Recover the amino acids of this structure.
């Protein structure tokens, strides 16, 4: 009834070219709705009566109004009916107000563009179920990139019926700050990113969401920070390039870099600690407890590092140099910057596609991901993809940074903290082949349909290798099922930088109440994953790429 009435008023009014709905108090109704914690029957009845009156009044008002001359200002105000556009007669809320409304007892608010909505009363009737709660206290936009079913006037109409206010965009970056906290100026993050640590901020998506789209929306891309996020400004940004032995360094402003020929690649970035939680189950390690979602895929646009180095004066055939070092704008209390390096051959190889990127998925790189410039070293461990890039040094030595020398290295399962010698292992560069089962996730209940369950996940390999096969079993390897590739990039190895999204339907035993699903991938070099985590365990919990094993319950 409510919807029909609402549709009627909107259509009626639109047909006549004036959007008078604002002045009829529909939002008052929504405010009222927002004060009720239970939408009971009598409330619905009262609401409908009220609505009838409101609609009647509205039409009446329209006829009275029609006789008046409407000012340009007013037309602008009332025509502003794009979903999520600013509505002058509604209150304005800041991001803190929104994120404090994330549970049913406090009411559940979400934002879409500049609109603020109280969707508490919609949750139980949402066709997509409980998933809607992932957006509680945050924006629905990144989810709607994953589930494009929402790009539909019918959905916008439902959404607008829950409108309660506007989002104060100016205030977003201007919340009350405690200047003594080094983390006082962190960017606002989406609530769906589940933090493994808050300061520094490290977070990943629930695995089921991760594989809903081939390209990961920026706001949902895992974040791996070692330090507070620097606040670099495009206007004052400078990148310094030093070629060792050459006195004069060269510097590039952002606009200088943007003038050089640009390139776009689609590349997956993965943290060395992805799937560390599987290793921790076997034996504790030092490191953040990452699940299988410390990985993401984006299109990256920027200028090839090779071109910048050559324009800074580096000679391609000069074999004095062995490494290209990077320094980020994020520093620790002693003033030491985050740093890493890659071998020079990779930096200069035309096929290496190493970029100084300024765009992520078509927009300026968000602060958490390295604004305004980050290095993208496709096929290479996340740690070398230095964010907030401020300095490049061409050298005969590796970076002396902690993260190059004393971290991000692999060791034998029998090496522990009392015996470890970090100088004995090389720094991780290209990552080995990996896969993960994302749907169903560990411990969940899956519906058996026609004696089969559907399993979905990703697979990826470093060094530009492509995934050629993913095998999945539910009987401990007695029978393997080859997965279908739902999405794979067309690029050929050794420039295949993006992950593969796979899916498979597997028959399950009629009597079994639960199963353990295993997945393993094979890459274009026919490298595959190790069977057990026990035998690849290492004290930092990196390179955790054993068969992915997920236990689930079955429902018929
Ligand atoms: C708060 C605003 C939201 C509204 C008004 C809304 C509305 C809807 C509607 C009307 C549909 C059915 C679409 C159709 O079949 O034409 C739908 C489906 C769906 N929604 Fe939402 N939604 C919202 C938020 C979300 C969020 C935040 C998520 C995920 C995190 C989500 C996940 C889904 C899924 C997975 C489906 C598809 C279900 C299926 O395929 O059967 N929705 N939603
Ligand atoms: N300057 C700087 N660059 C950095 C880091 C950092 O803390 N500071 N973290 C690295 C690590 S370990 C990873 S996995 C990736 C994470 O990138 P993302 O946060 O954009 O997902 O950035 C890398 N680049
Ligand atoms: Mo990482």
């Amino acid at each position: 009834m409510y919807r029909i009435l609402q549709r009627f008023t909107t259509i009626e009014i639109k047909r006549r070219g004036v959007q008078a709905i604002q002045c009829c108090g529909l939002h008052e109704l929504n405010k009222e709705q927002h004060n009720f914690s239970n939408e009971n029957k009598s409330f619905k009845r009262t609401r409908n009566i009220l609505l009838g009156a409101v609609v009647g009044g509205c039409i009446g008002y329209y006829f009275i109004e029609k006789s008046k001359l409407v000012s340009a200002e007013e037309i602008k105000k009332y025509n502003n009916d794009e979903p999520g556009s600013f509505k002058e007669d509604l209150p304005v809320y800041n991001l803190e107000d929104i994120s404090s409304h994330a549970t049913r007892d406090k009411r559940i608010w979400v934002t879409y563009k500049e609109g603020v909505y109280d969707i508490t009363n919609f949750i139980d009737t949402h066709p997509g179920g409980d998933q809607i709660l992932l957006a509680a206290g945050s924006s629905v936009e990144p989810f709607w990139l994953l589930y494009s079913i929402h790009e539909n006037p019918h959905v916008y109409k439902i959404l607008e019926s829950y409108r309660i206010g506007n989002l104060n965009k100016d205030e977003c970056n201007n919340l009350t700050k405690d200047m003594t906290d080094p983390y006082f100026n962190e960017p606002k993050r989406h609530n769906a990113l589940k933090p493994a640590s808050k300061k520094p901020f490290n977070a990943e998506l629930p695995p089921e969401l991760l594989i809903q789209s081939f390209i990961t929306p920026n706001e949902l891309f895992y974040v791996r920070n070692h330090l507070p996020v620097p606040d670099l400004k495009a206007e004052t940004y400078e990148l310094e390039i030093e070629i060792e032995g050459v006195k004069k360094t060269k510097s590039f402003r952002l606009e200088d870099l943007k003038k050089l020929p640009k390139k776009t690649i689609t590349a997956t970035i993965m943290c060395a600690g992805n799937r560390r939680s599987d290793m921790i189950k076997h034996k504790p390690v030092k490191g953040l407890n990452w699940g299988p979602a410390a990985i993401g895929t984006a299109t990256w646009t920027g200028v090839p590092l090779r071109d910048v180095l050559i324009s800074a004066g580096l000679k391609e055939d000069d074999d004095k140099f062995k490494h290209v070092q990077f320094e980020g704008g994020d520093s620790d209390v002693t003033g030491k910057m985050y740093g890493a390096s890659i071998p020079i051959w990779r930096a200069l190889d035309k096929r290496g596609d190493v970029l100084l990127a300024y765009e992520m998925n078509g927009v300026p790189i968000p602060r958490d991901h390295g604004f305004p410039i980050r290095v993208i070293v496709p096929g290479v461990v996340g740690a070398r993809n230095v964010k907030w890039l401020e300095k490049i040094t061409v050298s005969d030595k590796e970076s002396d940074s902690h993260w190059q020398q004393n971290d991000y290295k692999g060791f034998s399962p029998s090496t522990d903290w009392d015996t470890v010698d970090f100088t004995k292992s090389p720094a991780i560069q290209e990552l080995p082949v990996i896969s993960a089962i994302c749907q169903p996730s560990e411990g969940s209940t899956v519906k058996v349909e026609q004696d089969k369950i559907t399993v979905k996940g990703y697979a990826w390999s470093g060094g530009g290798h492509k995934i050629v096969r993913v095998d999945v079993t539910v009987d401990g390897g007695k029978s393997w099922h080859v997965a279908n590739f739902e999405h794979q990039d067309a690029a050929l190895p050794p420039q295949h930088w993006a992950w593969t999204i796979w899916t498979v339907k597997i028959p399950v035993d009629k009597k079994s109440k639960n199963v353990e699903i295993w997945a393993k991938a094979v890459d274009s070099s026919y490298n595959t994953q190790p069977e057990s985590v026990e035998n690849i365990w290492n004290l930092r919990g990196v390179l955790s790429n054993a068969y992915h094993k997920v236990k689930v319950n079955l429902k018929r």
Remarks:
- The chain has three domains: 2-167, 238-424, 434-555.
